[in-house]
Amino acid sequence: MRSAIVATVLNEVRHIREFLDSLERQTRTPDVLVVTDGGSVDGTTEILRQFASHTRLPFRWQGVPGNRSQGRNAAIRLADTDLIAVTDVNIVEPEWFERIIAPLECGKADVVGGWYEPLGDTPRESALGAMTLFSLRDIRPDSFVPASRSVAFTREAWRRVGGYDERLATAEDTVLAFAMRRAGLRFMFEPRAVVRCWTATSAVEAFRMYRRYAFSDGRAGTLGMPQTHYGRIYAVYGIAAGVLVLGFWWPPAWIALVGGAVAYAFVRVRAVVRLGLWTQIPYSILVGLAVDVAQMSGYAAGRVHALPALPLDGPARAIRPRRGT
Q1: Tens of pLDDT, residues 56-82
Q2: From edge to edge, which strands make up the β-sheet containing 32-37?
């Protein structure tokens, strides 16, 4: 069976050279490597042309105007292989492709979820990574929802659910994974297939990123699905608001509110505590608050613009993208 690595990029000039270099260090070479560009204007396409001219990899790239879902589907069509490994602009560890594709080749799974770790050179960057990515110790392998920064699946699995839903600009990988689970496809978690990814660099960037994700989740109606916490967040802040109002009639309620807020803050920053980044705890609490507000507001806005036919209840609609240059 032929296999491919596919990725889609947009204005990634800051990191794309490191990404491409990591692909060249893979212990196994794919039959084809396909990158689609969504319309970069920062020099990314020039780097792709340079890479194509000197790499020994079977590399193809194409401009595909549109969102990330359109780029991913176009890359998979261009690859035209039986097995597909998907990533984003990350540092891909040398054994990543070999490890994530193996369960598909031997027929043990239709979908393989790999793992991802944050990149960070400073305590602040490490804390932000801990606050914005899952911790491996918190993952349940049987219900893990893979992200397209580290996932692989058969072409038949992708075709069966209609591919990535091209109405979604973000959270498209979550919707795809839920559709694949609903279709009864076999999932496997491979934590040794690791990519190192860049994360938000500030509380403001984290807010914007999570609001985009939550908006797409709201459009797709993912409330209550694995690894989504919208119901819990709404409940926590709803109870807090109720206790705050109760305090005007019964002031001891405010003591309970403060105690609850402290406990919740500790839960939110527990990953930072595990890393021993004590000086970053105040900032991490701010990041946690920003992420919570982003998720609540983004999900609510997404529900206002809900998709007319939810991909969770059937195959996603795969719209053929326009061809780029």
Answers
A1: 999 999 999 999 999 999 999 999 999
A2: 59-63, 32-37, 3-9, 83-86, 151-154, 111-118, 187-197, 91-92
